[in-house]
Prior knowledge:
This is Molybdopterin biosynthesis sulfur carrier protein sulfurylase. GO terms for molecular function: tRNA threonylcarbamoyladenosine dehydratase; ubiquitin-like modifier activating enzyme activity. With about 280 residues, the chain is an alpha/beta fold. It has helices at about 1-10, 20-30, 35-40, 60-65, 75-90, 120-135, 150-155, 170-180, 205-210, 220-225, 230-245, 270-280; strands at about 15, 45, 70-75, 95, 140, 160-165, 185-190, 195-200, 255-260, 265-270.
Amino acid sequence: MDAVLQYLWSKAEGDLVPWSAQSEAVRQFGLSYGQVESLILEKGLLPARYQRNRTTVSTIEQRQLFNSRVAVIGCGGLGGYIIEELARLGVGQIVAIDPDIFEEHNLNRQLFSSPHALGKPKVEAAAARVSEINPAVNLVPVQEAFTTANGKQLLQGVTVAVDALDSIAYRLELAEVCSEMDIPMVYGAIGGWYGHVATQLPGDTTIQRTYRNWVEGKGIEKQLGNPSFTPAVVASLQVAEVCKILLGKGELLRHRKLSIDLLEMEIFDVSYAALAELVRAA
């Protein structure tokens, strides 16, 4: 590896290693893009593609992101944007879980969908997209439905799980498995002009309380549908929460939920602790 490092140092512009040098190191030394990126970050250098991160995410923190493993459950409206943003952010390992194929009604909002992709598995499209935009990121495609039966196996070694599901039943199963495995979970839900975002750490019950009055049936997304912009907004907020969890910084949406109304352009911060206090006072 000394020869690789010597080459990378020789091509560095300050502490930035340009993409051309990374690509040449892959070709010349027979390494993967992930191996080259790992070497760069371990030596305190920064791949030039992340230079606009650096005032927000330090080089040390960039290495933390690269060494993280995040599961995205659902690769549709929310999941496509979440995966795209995680890959561009530099999260090194992404597990994409979804049993579905693309259908025509996905074309209005799902980032990885296209007429050419109709009938193809969503996880395969996710893997192809990540390989195109950031080959250093390893995306593991899992074409399965997430359940309590396979959940522990699918989330093995995961740092954070991101909910991009359109099923309340599966979402509650995900929350159960995350709780049992001590994995933080970032929750997101969308329907029409509206969305919710929250973060649940092990031991919390935010999601269970959110759906405490739920009865069997379709979620609100099935009734209201979704335009192109709602999943993009909610997914971006979810990725911000994931980034904060991975880096251990900032204030999380814990014990509270953002309720987003894009029609009236209002965002409400619902605190479950405050609601509980009001109930006790009453």
